[in-house]
Amino acid sequence: MFDRIGEIEMIGDMVSTQETYGKTLVELGVKNKDIFALEADLMRCSGSKLFQDRYPDRHIQVGIAEQNLVGVAAGLAAMGRIPYASTFANFLTQRACDQIVMSLAYNNFNVKLVGSYAGITSGNNGGTHIAVCDIAITRSIPNMKVLDPGDSNEFRQAIIATSKDEGPTYIRQANGPMKTIFDNSHKFEIGKGYKFGNGKDITLISAGITTSLAMDALVALEKDNIKARIVHLPTLKPADSVLIIECAKATGALLTIENHSIFGGLGGLVSEIVSKNYPVIIDNIGLNDTWGLNAPFNFQLEYFGFTVENIIKKSKKLISRK
Amino acid sequence: MDRKIEKLKKIANKIRINTFHSITKAGGGHYGGCLSLSEILTVLYFDSMNLDPKKLKDDSRDRFILSKGHGGPALYATLSARGYIPLSSLDELDVPLSKFPKHIDRLKLDAIDVSSGALGQGLSIAVGMAISLKQQKKSNNVYIVLGDGECNSGQVWEAAMAASKYHLNNIIAIIDNNTYQLDGPTKTIMPLEPIEEKWKAFGWKTFNSDGHNIELLIETINKAKEEKSKPAIIIANTTKGKGISFMENATYWHAGTLSKEQLNQCLIELERLK
After folding, report:
1. Is residue A79 less than 8 Å (CB to CB) from chain B?
2. Sequence spans of domains, chain A
3. DSSP class of residue B252?
């Protein structure tokens, strides 16, 4: 079962983030006896069972009690341990918001929160299960870092990087399978944005599952003779403002694409950065002041405009307004 | 033994007096819930807990969480009496940007293990600490003082279940059961009785003590330490505002400011404690 631990997935592969999470925690847990995994009765959704099988004394199950989940993680961190506490992104950041603020962030404890089934990847579970404001919540909390990796390889690297980093961090975990878009040459660093392409007409800014879509759109735009570039922001806080400003200057138009409300997430942070430094025209694709749907993931992608066609349409409109 | 108890009684009175003066100098504050803590904190810091003010971050020390974070001034007075901080630092309570906010902050003061203030969260943190210690087969204990009012909070009971599930006999919790909270008597705000039966039902070993009787507190905590399989909780029955007659069991004095006449009366009453 563990023979593939540490292997890099191939580009184009569809990979379960659950498998990645479990394997990566085991990979870390072998070397680092301070790694703990905590669950609130959604272990099968995060994938930490692999870690539980290997290290039962470092796997804590608190039941459906998210506030206690975060508090227990804080206590482990107070003792110098490195807890990864997981449950659905919405329950974690909404039910346990005060515990994240007070028990974790105010104490600046070294806890890693993993919000599974992020955004519309929750799929057919309905609106109660779809986190639309988890980034807005966590991003506004002092001391917190916020990550939304673009594929399983980057998710794996993000888990490893956070284990070596100090301080409270929120990591989004899409409900897999996720399309692999990064190979071995991709080196994830907390706080770093990644640019793909050098087009000067428009910048597509994405994070998490939307970067794969932006890459498809980049090719399609090229066919329409629109020269675009992508800024992939797996770290939403601290965001790579240098790269964002550089691309605002180079292209004069930004289109953000996010699996989240357009308020307070990627669209919000990009607007905050460019409006203070180099104002350019911006549009957003994301959930516009609304809930997720009781519909399959692919249906929701279409419904909320996470399509190549919508990116082309919005890009053309933005370019015409420059 | 008698000499030791007499000495601790004197220390508790000193802590009560210093707590009062520091809150008063700050212009008022949480007199009630601080004055009910004097004996509990004295026994913890001068008898029960394994600690050394000279080895602040020694890994073998017992950990302490003051979950009722508004008891900060009482804890500062205790830390001062125990030699962690100078007596003069009690004058810095609530001074802008000082190390001594009324709700304790671990990032400001090294002697604090956990910041608190948002009630109901401390026991979960104690559970995490205790799990860590047990997993490493260490013998340190985790001590926590909760307010009775904060047991209104659902998270306390989530943590109580978890402590029982993981057989955390290295947690010794003490409830400062002063029977009052900000808006009034606990029994009218949200009745907690039968509180001991509640904790028993959640799988804890329970004890009862007069929270102002030093000899009894020591004896009860020693019994709690001997518990081998369950987390232990001591319901320490206290008087809110203990030591100042008009503050005792008076809702207003959860937090308040003294008039000049009241202050004079307080000084006379505190003089009798010396």
Report:
1. yes
2. 14-179, 194-316
3. G
